[in-house]
Design goal:
Blueprint (H helix, E strand, L loop, with lengths): L1 H16 L17 H19 L17 H17 L7 E4 L6 E4 H22 L8 H14 L25 H8 L4 H4 L3
Amino acid sequence: MLDLHRQTLRQSVEIVAAIRDDQWDLPTPCTQWMVGELLDHMIRENRGFASAADGETADASTWTSPVGPDRRAEYADSARRVTDAFGADGVLDRTFWLPLIRDGVTVPARQGISFHLLDYLVHGWDVAVSVGRRPDFGDAVVAAVHEIAVREVPDGPRRHRPEASLGPALPATVGAPALDRLLAFLGRDPDRWGKP
């Protein structure tokens, strides 16, 4: 799981590094955010998950702290930070305190890392297709995230709320690639967004 997570974060850094200055205000498949706003969210989530991996259980400020003007550099730094934190000795034996999820929950580290992996495949794709790129996360990552999605975020009432970050499952195109089928299951429309 950690190798797949590192691979996904590495690709997300490459996607973010290629964003042009005139693309921050483009719409994204994550309809509540434009590209820049989505990236701010991703930076804060990286910081928050890194703090959780370090053992933080009371201070939620890293989840909401401001993002500076150089989003590309801040994203790369936050991605490195969360990757290093997840890979530190003993992390997989800890629990993660996630204060912004359902009024604060504590989950086993492996589950927390799986949440982050799913989120960054989806949001990495969101950013990429919003700026005209088509990411390839690789078969192993897509298969792992598909298992996580079925187990952790099945289609149901939670995903039908207006503020849900993952919408109701959409029908997948017959014969669609595994990534497109996964995205459709998670409420994204690769036929609309993912085509060059």
